[in-house]
Structure formats: structure tokens, C-alpha cells
């Protein structure tokens, strides 16, 4: 068995990671997606048990580094479980986190329908923190929903590129240059991730959140995207209602465990 940590996946490693997560999704009946855009990847490779000697990725953890918190996605082949492979990678991960962070916190993401992952997290002492929904809006699928023209809105959207062309920060203005709200997009055509959407407190309860999201949806062709994705906390009912009202649907339920 070979254990490594890498910042960037080769084409072969990315293909093996996709194969691994696909096997886990099919076997465990989960929808957790394949996180190929992480900051670190812990990989444990071996040989296929069929005697061919073909290399195989038995277990992997993708890590997204945040300020004081690392978000982790772990997968182990169904036919290679209960052999300590995941724990071996977790040990490497803990050592690296201890060197990089003064008080490291690890957060593991799991599909609540995946009993295997939930049982492993319970076994290592991870505790459920909160649940979150992944949601998606697709322009083609929602054309019928939004066939009527958008009612005239007092909002005016402006945008600037931040750090790189892939991130756009939007501001919503009311007449008199009053800042009513803001949101950001991380653009990877043909889709973009919507995050940090907020309406300024004095303007809440006026339907401006709905107007802002709908204006964004009408702008998607100009941005070069057809799909919007986002994540929202399961206990944020106002946000859930807003996104459902604007045509988003839930694609995944994610459970976050602190370790």
C-alpha cells in the first residue's frame, strides 16, 4: 500500500478519484459529489485483488483549507473497507493539520443516507455539527417557471472581478445609491456557485432578495453560464424559501461532523 499527500491531482489520479467516488455512490446509495478542486488530497493506493496487478485507489480524503477549519471528504472502496485504510490517511491528515493550524479543527462532510460513512465518523468520535442542502437552478429547466417577464424592479446590479476573473462580487443598489444587498459568484462555465447573498437589514422583508436572485438568473447568458449552484444551512428557513421560490431544487443533503 502507498500513502501520499498531494496538492494537485494528475489526470490519472483524478480519474481514479472519480472512479472511487462513483463506486461509493452506487454501493452506498449516496449523492455526495466528487471534490476534485480541493487544496490537499490524501490517497492510499494498492493493487486490484484480482491478481492482475492493476493499481487501484482504495481510499482518499479531499481537503478544503479554511481559516482554522479544514473541510474533508472521505471515500473508501466498498471491497476495501474495515482494513484501516481510512484511519491511515486520517493519521497523515491530523499530522499535517497540527503543523499548519495552531488549534486544528477538522470537519467531515457526509451524506446522511450513507450509513457506512456515518458509522465510521461515529467510531472516530466525530460529532454532528449541522446539516446543509446543496441546491441547483438550471436556466433550461426553469424556462417555463419564469416564462413571464420579470416585474419592473428598482434594483440595479453592479459587479466587479475579485482576485481572479473566476470570482464576481455583485452589489444591488436602490435609487439614491442606497446599497440594498450583495452576493458573489464563483464562475466555472457553464455553471457558477452563488454564495454570501445578503440583503441589508433596513431593506429586508420587501421582496428584494427575490428580485436580486431573479435579476441574476436573467443575467446568466451574459455571464456565460446556464446553471447556478449554492449551499444553504438546513435551519435557514427564509433562505430555503427564497431559493425554492426562485426555482432552485435540492440536489444533496450534507451532514457536517466536527472531529
Oligomer: single chain
Number of domains: 2
Kindly estimate the percentage of residues that lie in beta strands according to DSSP: 35-45%
- Average predicted local confidence, pLDDT: 90
Shape: elongated
> In DSSP terms, counting alpha (H) and pi (I) runs of 4 or more, how many helices?
5
CATH class of the largest domain: Alpha Beta
Uncertain parts: none
Question: Could you spell the SSE succession in H and E letters?
Answer: EHEEEHEHEEEEEHEHE
What percent of residues adopt helix (DSSP H or I)? 25-40%
**How does the helix and strand content classify structurally?**
alpha+beta
Task: Note the main sheet.
Answer: 12 strands, mixed
Terminus-to-terminus distance: 26 Å
CATH superfamily of the largest domain: Gcn5-related N-acetyltransferase (GNAT)
Write down how many β-strands occur, each being a DSSP E stretch of 2 or more residues. Answer: 12
**Biggest sheet strand line-up:** 1-2-3-4-5-12-6-11-10-9-8-7
Which value, in Å, is the CA radius of gyration? 21 Å
CATH architecture of the largest domain: 3-Layer(aba) Sandwich
What fold name stands as the CATH topology of the largest domain? Aminopeptidase
Pfam families: Acetyltransf_1
Domain N-acetyltransferase: 130-259
Protein name: Acetyltransferase (GNAT) family protein
Keywords: Transferase
What does this structure look like?
With 259 residues, this protein is of the alpha+beta class. It folds into two domains: 2-125, Aminopeptidase; 136-254, Aminopeptidase, CATH 3.40.630.30. Helices cover 26% and strands 41% of the residues. It has five helices and twelve strands. The chain has helices at 11-28, 85-100, 115-123, 208-223, 237-245, and strands at 2-6, 40-47, 55-65, 69-76, 105-110, 127-138, 156-162, 164-174, 178-188, 191-199, 227-233, 249-258. It has a twelve-stranded mixed beta sheet. α4 (208-223) links the parallel β10 (191-199) and β11. The relative contact order is 0.15.
Amino acid at each position: 500500500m502507498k500513502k501520499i499527500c498531494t496538492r494537485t491531482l494528475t489526470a490519472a489520479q483524478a480519474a481514479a478519484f472519480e472512479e472511487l467516488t462513483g463506486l461509493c455512490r452506487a454501493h452506498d446509495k449516496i449523492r455526495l459529489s466528487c471534490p476534485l478542486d480541493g487544496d490537499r488530497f490524501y490517497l492510499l493506493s494498492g493493487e486490484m485483488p484480482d491478481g492482475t496487478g492493476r493499481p487501484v485507489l482504495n481510499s482518499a480524503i479531499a481537503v478544503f483549507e479554511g481559516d482554522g477549519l479544514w473541510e474533508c471528504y472521505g471515500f473508501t472502496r466498498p471491497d476495501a473497507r474495515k482494513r484501516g485504510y481510512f484511519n491511515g490517511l486520517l493519521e497523515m491528515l491530523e499530522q499535517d493539520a497540527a503543523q499548519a493550524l495552531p488549534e486544528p479543527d477538522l470537519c467531515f462532510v457526509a451524506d446522511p443516507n450513507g450509513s457506512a460513512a456515518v458509522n465510521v465518523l461515529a467510531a472516530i468520535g466525530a460529532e454532528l455539527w449541522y446539516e446543509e442542502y446543496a441546491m441547483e437552478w438550471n436556466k433550461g429547466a426553469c424556462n417555463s417557471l419564469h416564462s413571464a417577464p420579470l416585474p419592473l424592479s428598482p434594483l440595479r446590479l453592479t459587479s466587479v472581478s475579485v482576485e481572479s476573473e473566476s470570482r464576481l462580487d455583485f452589489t444591488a443598489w436602490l435609487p439614491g445609491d442606497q446599497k440594498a444587498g450583495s452576493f458573489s459568484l464563483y464562475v466555472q462555465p457553464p455553471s457558477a456557485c452563488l454564495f454570501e447573498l445578503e440583503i441589508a437589514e433596513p431593506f429586508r422583508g420587501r421582496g428584494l432578495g427575490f428580485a436580486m436572485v431573479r435579476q441574476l438568473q436573467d443575467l446568466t447568458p451574459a455571464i456565460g453560464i446556464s446553471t447556478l449552484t449554492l449551499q444553504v444551512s438546513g435551519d435557514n428557513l427564509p433562505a430555503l424559501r427564497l431559493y425554492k421560490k426562485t426555482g432552485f431544487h435540492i440536489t444533496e443533503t450534507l451532514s457536517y461532523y466536527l472531529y
